[in-house]
Structure formats: structure tokens, C-alpha cells
Amino acid sequence: MIQPELSTLxxxxxxxxxxxxxxxxxxxxxxxxxxxxxxxxxxRSDMTGSKAEALCxxxxxxxxxxxxxxxxGHGASGGSFRDGTISRWLEESLAAFDHYTSGPQILAGSxxxxxxxxxxxxxxxxxxxxxxVAGLLLIAPAPDFTLELMEPExxxxxxxxxxxxxxxxxxxxxxxDPNVFTRALLEDGRNNRVLEGLIxxxxxxxxIQGMADPDVPWRHALRLIEHLPSENxxxxxxxxxxxxxxxxxxxxxxxxxxxxxxxxx
Length: 265
Description:
Layout (H helix, E strand, L loop, with lengths): L4 E7 L6 E8 L10 E5 L9 H13 L3 E4 L16 H15 L4 E6 L1 H15 L6 E7 L5 H6 L5 H10 L1 E4 L8 E4 H8 L14 E6 L7 H9 L6 E6 L9 H15 L3
Parallel strand pairs: 3-4, 3-5, 5-6, 6-9, 9-10
Antiparallel strand pairs: 1-2, 2-4, 7-8
């Protein structure tokens, strides 16, 4: 099995320049005609997580190409986390897609990565490359989460912190450091909304959502489906699934869905 290679990609110019770290695996001859997998992580996640690693290993077993990378301010990549916005991370995702991949790809987006995957489809279609997306695997997807899930729940203290300091912090069960949310992130989120009209993917979509997810309610997945074409959309609800969906049985479902999306028609 070909092992993944670590490399860096420079994105942006001047004071907006940042170095993006990526792990790539090239397709073997047997997998050269198969769609590759592109992993798009969540907020404050990195490319070494169990789901990203499992998807990369699946690609290796099947001989297909794979790409995973860290957004700026995440993991091994450069840049400040507090400079991060959906537009900034979308720019990096498209740059990595353009630089490292060729041919059709399955976009696998987890949480915020699901939002970025949907925005990538829109941007690729706008430039006439919509056929590069062979499918979307969306795991606990959080499209428009800043506007739909965060802003309505902001406390008065958080609103004041955003106004006076430009950010607020809150504890997270996923690590020792608090989550940081900036005014720039929330404002930019409004410019990247996808839950407004029909999201034309022209590719099959499989959504996997836990019903015990404390961060993204399972009804948010139903809301997303309302904006997707009715054909070729599959929703898998996991009754006791949390937001991470990183248990062995969850990852098995994710890999089965990825395999189904990537199977020859």
C-alpha cells in the first residue's frame, strides 16, 4: 500500500500568506480511474483524527487517491486560528483541491467541513468544474452554523464580548482549551450561507447524523435535505450517535457510505 506523503502548500499573498500542511496518497494503477477522497475537517479538528485516518486507509486498500489537510490555524498548518473564517478556509480547501487532486473526487466533510464541502461544490460549478465532484459524504454537517445554530443562542455576555473584544470563548468537551469564536467568523458566515435556495450538487449525497448530537441537532440535517435535489440524497440517522461519530461502529458506517458513493455506477 502506498503511504501518504506530507507536504505543504502556500496559500495567499503578503500578510495573508499561510502554509497549509497536507497528507496525500497517490492512486495506484488499479485505482487510477476511481474517484479519490478529499477529507474536510471540522472546527478545530485536524487531519490526524480517526475518521480522516480511516478514510485514508480505505483509499489505500482500494488503490484510490486521497487528500487530507489542516486549515490555517489548525493542526500542522500555519496562520492564526483567530484569523479563520469560512471564506478563508474555503480558499484553502479549493487551493488544496486544485493543487493535489485530478479527476473526480468524493468530498467528505465533517461538521463545519460539510459546510465547506457544499460551498466548494458551488464554487466549482461556478467555474465550470462541477463534474469534478463525484459525490458528497456529509458527517454531522453544520452548514450555516454561525447564523443558524450559534447566533440565536448567544448570551448577553457573549454579545458584549463580540462587540467590545471581537471574540468570545466557551469551554468545550473536546479538549482542554476553550473554543474561540470571533466577530469576523460570524459576519463572514452570513456571506457564505447555503440554506437559502436549492443547492445544486449534480452528485449523490449521503448524510450521516447522530440523533444524540449536542452540537448539531439532527433536525438540522433535515433542514439541509430540503435544500438538496430530491434524487440521490441518503440520510442515515444514528439514534445514539454523538457529534464526533468516532466509535468503531460509526466509522464502519462512514466507510460503507464512502464505498457506496465511490462505487462504479
